[in-house]
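Let us practice reading a record.
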Amino acid sequence: MNDNKRPLWRIPVMWLVIGLPLASIVAGVGLLIVATRTGGDDVVNDEVRRVSQIQTTNLGPDAKARQLGLSAIVRIDETMVEAIPATGEFPREANLRLLLQHPTQSEDDLTLELAPTETGWRSTTPIDDGHDWIVQLAPADGTWRLQGRLPKQQHAARLAPSLQP
């Protein structure tokens, strides 16, 4: 018989018996911390209703922009932001509201009032081009809405209704 008594920490199977449950506990606590720190906010700023398990939102402004055939180009540089109409008949006398949403951090979102110019609408606010922007252009009353995405370090983006024909 082999009466050779070895300490438990020197037996490889004991490392599995103790190590695997311990590793799963550490991983579970880590996942729990990550899940609670991210928050429950959605990236979408639209007002969303939840009915049963279906999420619905008001697509009226997008449908109106599609009906009017609107699209625009948003151009940024170091000193200004400009919206230039591409298609459709825009009401040229009123200010437009430009919403620049950070893809992940809502505290970095910007809302700009663009004043009419000869070529479109303009604001003299400098914009950080170090990350992507989700862009929405709409009048102050919100009757129509154009949307698009401005990728990192790109200086122009096309905006169109989110509903396509």
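A brief commentary: The first helix runs from residue 12 to 37.
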